[in-house]
Amino acid sequence: MDFDLPYDGTEDLEMTGSGRQTKRPINGPKPKPPVWTPADASLPIDTAATDHIFNVASLLKRMARVQPHKKAVICPFGRDRCGRVAYTHLTFQQLDQESDDLAWGLESAGITRGTRTILMVKPSLDFFTLTFALFKAGAVPVVVDPGMGIRRMVDCFKQSSPSAFVGVPAAHVLRILFPRFFGSIKTWVTVGRSWLPGQHSLKKLGRARRLPFPAAQTSRDETAAILFTTGSTGPAKGVLYTHGIFAAQIAAIKSHFLISTGEIDLPTFPLFALFDPALGMTAVIPDMDPTRPAQVDPVKIIAAVKDHGVTNMFASPALLNRVGRYGRENNVKLPSLKRVISAGAPIMPANIEQFAGLLDEEADIHTGYGATEAMPVAAIEGREILNETRSQSEKGSGICVGRPMSGVAVRIIAIDDGPIDAWSDAVAAGNGAVGEITVKGSQVTRHYFENPAADALSKIRDKDGVWHRMGDLGRLDEHGRIWFYGRKSHRVVTAGGTLFTIPCEAIFNNHPLVYRSALVGVGSAPNQKPVICIELEPGRGGGNRMELTRKLLELASSSELTQAIDTVLFPEEFPVDIRHNAKIFREKLALWAAKKISGKSL
């Protein structure tokens, strides 16, 4: 099934130079594309998409000209004598100048065009300066989530065959613990005090020159970075990002969410923070552990929003739930926020409703859909979820993640666990059928780094490009909206048919004591036993578990989707991904459920 034009005539958003939106009547005439006024001519939209030479760092250079004295990055820096949070910052001009200086230093140390460089630096001013300096030099940052565990992390480093390593002092301990994983490294740079031989100091490299650095004349198809997936449903893979893909992402984010130059962002996921300087937004680095958003201190997040008048926030569903719960209980209001973007995992309507209570009526919560390999793919406003799609989701119709972004083609193909060498109409699913979501567009990556096996399983080539298989199951409705049904690898295949995680879990999530649920399969397909695991609402033990189980099974029998489920288990907590703390590791739960059912000790 095809859906290449993500417009269905339901609403038209026109954008003016002020960033205001105007709406047309439902079923009105098909709108013209958004038009930027002359006042927006200097904004970092990808206006030269056909230019062959492009370096993503040029977008920072442009913003340094447009608003040189506007703060680009703000970072917590301890507390003052009155106990208030103190902040340090760089303006756009300073960030551009300091990254120029550092690019000279990196080049003198041997980090030049094409140098794959491991980057292990916490969210900070140095993180921004380093990343843009590497882009300017034409080097290739290699970024891995530290929360995935040391062994898996160094495996990723080895896969990328790096030539340079830039990190905080503690990160350099890895070269002692795992020397054979770093045999290819020729240049070591320490962000902080150097304490091992052969290290360069970032501070000294940043003093190299005070002249503008001539950014590498990279092509749009040249590798800009290698970003590793979390490996939540398999081995972590290095995703190749080009300078052109970064530019397409920035343009899509800006135009779809109507982001204006001069806005203030609170990016609670570090990689998304890097988009802010190119978008002309001030990035306020939150005081939090980015690998544990579900344990964030709500007071610190709320303080950052209020201290700086934050207008935009990116957050995982887990963080929104924690901050929203605290805000509701303490009657918190965040009037400066006009836009909240949540991604990383499906966000439940109750979570949207809860956080919306902290916002003004004009503000909205957007759910973004995508992956490390393809981002953003689609989005939907919270109002549409609460007013229209929520009731369908609660009945097991999947979670609506919105219409495809402009320029993104979406097709649903028949479920197949094997590789598909080339695109043909034969692989497509029928109209409205549930299948695997595939996407193609300028912000969709084409390759993994030196991983032909992963390419074979995730990429489908056609005559004019590459389709990426999202590994997600879903369908397209008559309005062109994507409905997410769960990961392909998480489906449960029984003798009586296939069960999909999201629709089945929705039935159990209707119970007021259930915070969330997870469907897992015990045994091997096609004879798996479906088991539902239940995580209760915080602070609510559920009382009599036998009685609760009985009521949950009554819920199951009330829906055709869940009638085959006759086993309910209550893990103490759900294992979740390290990036957003929201994706449930159903593979781990399935192993636990198998042991629980068999009576083995856990």
Describe the overall structure.
The chain is of the alpha/beta class and 602 residues long. The protein is built from 17 helices and 29 strands. A hairpin with a 2-residue loop joins strand 17 and strand 18 (374-381). Helix 1 runs antiparallel to helix 2 (92-108), helix 2 packs across helix 3 (125-137) and helix 10 (298-308) crosses helix 11 (317-329). It is globular and about 70 Å long.
- How many DSSP helices? 17
Largest sheet: 15 strands, mixed
Evaluate the radius of gyration. Answer: 24 Å
pLDDT < 50 runs, ≥5 residues: 1-49
Instruction: Tell me the helix content.
Output: 25-40%
What fraction of residues sit in β-strands? 15-25%
Give average pLDDT, whole number: 88
Supply the helix-strand structural class: alpha/beta
* CATH architecture classification name of the domain at 42-77 and 93-260: 3-Layer(aba) Sandwich
CATH topology of the domain at 42-77 and 93-260: Rossmann fold
CATH class of the domain at 42-77 and 93-260: Alpha Beta
Query: Per the principal axes of the C-alpha atoms, what is the gross shape?
Result: globular
Q: CA-to-CA gap between the ends?
A: 45 Å
Number of strands: 29
Give the topology, please.
Blueprint: E1 2-3, E2 14-15, E3 21-22, H1 58-66, E4 71-79, E5 85-91, H2 92-108, E6 116-120, H3 125-137, E7 140-143, H4 150-159, E8 164-167, H5 174-177, E9 187-190, E10 199-201, H6 202-205, E11 223-228, E12 238-242, H7 243-257, E13 264-267, H8 270-273, H9 275-279, E14 282-284, H10 298-308, E15 312-315, H11 317-329, E16 339-342, H12 349-356, E17 364-371, E18 374-381, H13 382-394, E19 399-404, E20 409-413, E21 435-440, H14 452-458, E22 459-462, E23 465-476, E24 482-487, E25 492-494, E26 497-499, H15 501-509, E27 514-522, E28 529-536, H16 545-557, E29 568-569, H17 586-598
Parallel strand pairs: 4-14, 6-7, 6-8, 7-11, 8-9, 9-10, 13-14, 13-15, 15-16, 16-17, 28-29
Antiparallel strand pairs: 1-20, 2-3, 4-5, 11-12, 17-18, 18-19, 19-24, 20-21, 21-23, 22-23, 23-24, 25-26, 27-28
